[in-house]
């Protein structure tokens, strides 16, 4: 039976540290503040927003929601984003995406100042992540994967890591962060040949695919560590969600595995707050 790499312990330790850092900032009269930018009111955005607000409250951080109608014009939304970006009280910006198709999302993303871009929306931030510039914040989910590996003291140096998925929000940045820790990284995708065989060679397997329970017993081997980033509707349990890994078939084989729910997803809002506190500290350096 594999050890469960639970996210709660990681998030709790992070929040304990953040509490102290927020206190230190408050003693200087500064309260870190997250600006949440939302167009419309999609259910999954509201769900994530609720979690983010709760985490902010738990560490004494402030937040403000900037909500706009779905028929906002490009011109008005650009102005709104520039205003939030210039707002001295706001240290970090979370903008929900995708934006409505009527808006030029690429242009809007580029207007978020890099020093406040705590979820890596702009290409400027992504460039910094790829160049190992620590002043650019990686997206929260890849950072959550790294924080889980670090918390559970899983060695990365020289290890073979296979990442399945090459999106700009998870696969590519997590591969860069793993490389930064001296892992030997293979990135796989929908055209990879013999995917099960490639995955089974890994010491650490990161699944960021978006396909419910795709990684089964044929993709893994004993001794592996499995990080399941997936959040999918569970085809076998209506109203529940599951990962990209078929937990029931993989868990008896591997050494350690993140559960879904209760794994990577439960660390992401703590990372969002960590990035905002870091941004606040950097913006107030004397
Ligand atoms: P995405 O943009 O759809 O990318 C999926 C990646 O998986 C693509 O690179 C795709 O390859 C690859 N892929 C799809 N089918 C495949 C197959 N049959 N074999 C091999 N590779 C395949 O998804 P994403 O935004 O990266 O998200 C990935 C998963 O993570 C989703 O389940 C999402 O819900 C979840 N997620 C979780 C969190 C969290 O906080 N836990 C946050 C964000 C996302 P191609 O490039 O070749 O198409």
Write a compact overview of the structure shown.
The protein has 286 residues and is α/β, with parallel strands linked by helices.
Question: What is the element layout, followed by pairings?
Answer:
Layout lengths: L2 E2 L2 H20 L6 E7 L3 H17 L2 E7 L5 H13 L5 E4 L9 H6 L12 H8 L9 H12 L8 E5 L6 H10 L3 E5 L6 H6 L3 E4 L17 E4 L3 E2 L7 E2 L4 H4 L5 E2 L10 H16 L3
Helix pairs in contact: 1-10, 2-10, 6-7, 6-10
This protein binds NADP nicotinamide-adenine-dinucleotide phosphate.
Please give a structural write-up.
By secondary structure, the chain is of the alpha/beta class. It has two domains: 29-114, Rossmann fold, CATH 3.40.50; 140-266, NAD(P)-binding Rossmann-like Domain (Rossmann fold), CATH 3.40.50. The chain contains ten helices and eleven strands. It has helices at 7-26, 43-59, 74-86, 105-110, 123-130, 140-151, 171-180, 195-200, 247-250, 268-283, and strands spanning 3-4, 33-39, 62-68, 92-95, 160-164, 184-188, 204-207, 225-228, 232-233, 241-242, 256-257. Strand 5 (160-164), helix 7 and strand 6 (184-188) form a beta-alpha-beta unit. Helix 1 (7-26) runs parallel beside helix 10 (268-283). The longest helix has 20 residues, at 7-26. The mean pLDDT is 97. The structure holds NADP nicotinamide-adenine-dinucleotide phosphate. NADP nicotinamide-adenine-dinucleotide phosphate binds next to loops.
Keywords:
alpha/beta, Rossmann fold, six-stranded parallel β-sheet, three-stranded parallel β-sheet, binds NADP nicotinamide-adenine-dinucleotide phosphate
């Amino acid at each position: 039976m594999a050890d469960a790499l639970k996210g709660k312990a990681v998030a709790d330790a992070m929040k304990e540290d953040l509490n102290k850092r927020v206190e230190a900032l408050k003693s200087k009269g500064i309260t870190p503040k997250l600006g949440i930018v939302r167009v419309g009111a999609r259910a999954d955005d509201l769900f994530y927003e609720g979690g983010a607000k709760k985490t902010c409250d738990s560490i004494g951080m402030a937040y403000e929601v900037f909500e706009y109608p779905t028929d906002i014009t490009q011109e008005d939304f650009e102005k709104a984003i520039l205003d939030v970006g210039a707002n001295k009280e706001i240290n970090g910006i979370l903008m929900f995406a995708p934006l409505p198709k009527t808006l030029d999302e690429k242009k809007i993303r580029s207007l978020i100042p890099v020093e406040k871009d705590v979820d890596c929306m702009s290409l400027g931030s992504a460039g910094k992540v790829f160049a190992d510039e620590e002043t650019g914040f990686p997206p929260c989910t890849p950072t959550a994967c790294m924080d889980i590996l670090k918390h559970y003291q899983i060695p990365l140096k020289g290890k073979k890591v296979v990442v399945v998925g090459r999106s700009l929000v998870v696969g590519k940045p997590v591969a860069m962060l793993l490389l930064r820790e001296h892992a030997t990284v293979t990135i796989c995708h929908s055209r990879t040949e013999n995917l099960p065989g490639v995955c089974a060679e890994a010491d650490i397997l990161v699944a960021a695919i978006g396909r419910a329970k795709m990684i089964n017993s044929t993709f893994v081997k004993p001794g592996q560590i499995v990080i399941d980033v997936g959040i999918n509707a569970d085809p076998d349990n209506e109203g529940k969600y599951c990962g990209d890994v078929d937990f029931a078939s993989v868990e008896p084989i591997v050494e350690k595995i993140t559960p879904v729910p209760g794994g990577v997803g439960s660390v992401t809002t703590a990372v969002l707050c960590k990035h905002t506190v870091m941004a606040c500290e950097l913006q107030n350096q004397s």
